[in-house]
Task: structure prediction
Amino acid sequence: MRFKSAVIGAGPTGICAVGHLLDLRLYPILWIDPCFNSGRLSSYENVPSNTKVKLFIEFALNCNTFKEIASQNDDVLKALLAMDQDSGCYYDKRYQTITTDKGNVRSMNFSDIWCIELEGSGEKHYSDSTILATGSQPRESRQFPSETQHEIIPIHLDVALDPGRLSQIITKDDNVAVVGSSHSAILVLKNLSQNTSCKSILNFYREELKFAEYKDGWILYDNTGLKGQAATWARNELSKVQKIKRIKLPKEKNKEEEVYLAHLRGCTKIIYAIGFERNPLPIISVNDRVCREISYNSKNGQMSDENGPLDNCFGFGIAFPEKTIDPMGNVEYAVGLYKFTRYMKNIFPVIFKPLLDKLNK
Result:
């Protein structure tokens, strides 16, 4: 079967993409995902968001398709409306959506049309356009000096962000190191201090804490500053926790090792909260020539390789966020459910117009 559009990924971005494609009537749609469980976000049900509840509702109602679904089954929407609209919520309050057949994409080859091959079965599907909503994962740690490696047990960020799971693996004899100073790092420090009996906590950081500031009609450090429970705890409690020692890393990379060696010898466990990186992409090729350098346009999602734009192939979401500039000239990348759907609502009619015109001839 030939599809007009294909969406790879069924996290929040994939869900948004399908909704907006339906609004454009760019269907039938091929939707591929290995799990169809709302992506990595579904594993963070015990993590407080830095997004206000009212923006989750705007996310759910940002396209006509979502409005229609909500009108047919509005129990979750009513629950969100009953909550404090200016506070955060927990991610298990998210809106649920449809599912479809599961699978992993092995490769994508463009030759007048996209040929999408699934892993295992080798089944091939054909689509006029493709959207990569493939998501991201916690960034891998750097390697620390060999003198300390055998002494320290790493804890995955997903575990550290869940208070219950974290409390089961931290003992009263543990000295825990946390690397990072972003939203995730602050939540990890909060969980360690409130939900475990560890002996001490070392927090290695490069940048000073930054807080989002609500201005008249816009937010300073909207995407890089602390918000919600993380911001409140960092402002009011962090400095009061005596077992937490914060250690600023030097700007010179070659001096970092000395700092780590001086402080990590007594640590038993370590948690890296140093951001997220893109999940691996399928093999992408054009006329069977494998693309070596994949990039994207941060203003419209257009995917490219070393030879230029890839026809009707776009990337969105946390792996391919929109670049924004605030009124003070700060450049950030817009990450958040509402930001993803707002971006797609604005840009989809523009980027898909040539394809729609061609298909409707």
